[in-house]
Every structure is written in structure tokens, then in C-alpha cells.
Design goal:
The chain has 119 residues and is mainly beta. The protein has one domain. Strands 1, 2, 3, 4, 5, 6 and 7 form a seven-stranded antiparallel β-sheet that branches. It is elongated and about 40 Å long.
Length: 119
């Protein structure tokens, strides 16, 4: 009996799940009185954008990364934004997430969320 017959080493590699997301998030805020951003308060305070994202999945935990482009933006900030976060799969249908939205490295806000998968 040789050593390699008794002790087997098993290694496997599964490439990460890759999702390409194209969605249209809409954003509306009632309170946004930051002195660094100037905007017309009489106008509708609305942002609409399209983004592409990648989500690296490891077990129940995933790391979503997104790059977005505003096509409607009343705020005088950059037209490009980034989001990075953590998402945890609680069960087959429920998820919890926290994400940071930034404009070229300047944090805008932290988003907390709970998701439910319908289908």
C-alpha cells in the first residue's frame, strides 16, 4: 500500500457566478441638504440611471459591484457613479444587503435593503 492510495487530496474549482445586470433604478429624496451639491429646489428631485454590474458569489455571501450612468439627474454632481456592497442569502427567497454609493471615490450614501425573490 502506497501513501497516495491511503491519503487522497481532492481539490475542485468552480468559477464564480457571473451576472450582468442592466436595470433602471429611480431615486427620489425628500431630505438632501448637503452643502457640497447645488440643485434647484423648485425642480423635481429625481435621479434616473442605468448601470452594469458584476456579482461575485461565494456560498450565501456575494459582493455586488456596479457602475452606473445617470440619464436624468437634477443634482449637479457627476453623471457616473459606483456601488459596492455585501449581499447575504438568508433563505431560498430572502436576501439582506448593504451597499455604498460613491461618485469617483466620494461616498454619497449607504443603502440597506431586504429582498424577496418572486420567481
Amino acid at each position: 500500500m502506497q501513501l497516495h492510495d491511503r491519503y487522497r487530496i481532492h481539490a475542485s474549482f468552480r468559477p464564480p457566478t457571473l451576472w450582468l445586470l442592466l436595470t433602471w433604478p429611480f431615486h427620489w429624496e425628500e431630505i438632501y441638504d448637503a452643502p457640497t451639491y447645488t440643485f434647484d429646489k423648485s425642480a423635481l428631485q429625481l435621479q434616473a440611471s442605468v448601470y452594469a454590474g458584476y456579482e461575485h458569489v461565494v456560498g450565501r455571501l456575494s459582493i455586488p459591484v456596479q457602475l452606473g450612468l445617470y440619464f436624468y439627474n437634477n443634482y449637479s454632481i457627476s453623471s457616473i457613479y459606483q456601488m459596492i456592497g455585501l449581499r447575504y442569502k438568508i433563505s431560498q427567497r430572502w436576501t439582506a444587503a448593504v451597499q455604498l454609493k460613491a461618485h469617483f471615490g466620494k461616498a454619497d450614501y449607504i443603502q440597506y435593503g431586504v429582498g424577496y425573490k418572486i420567481f
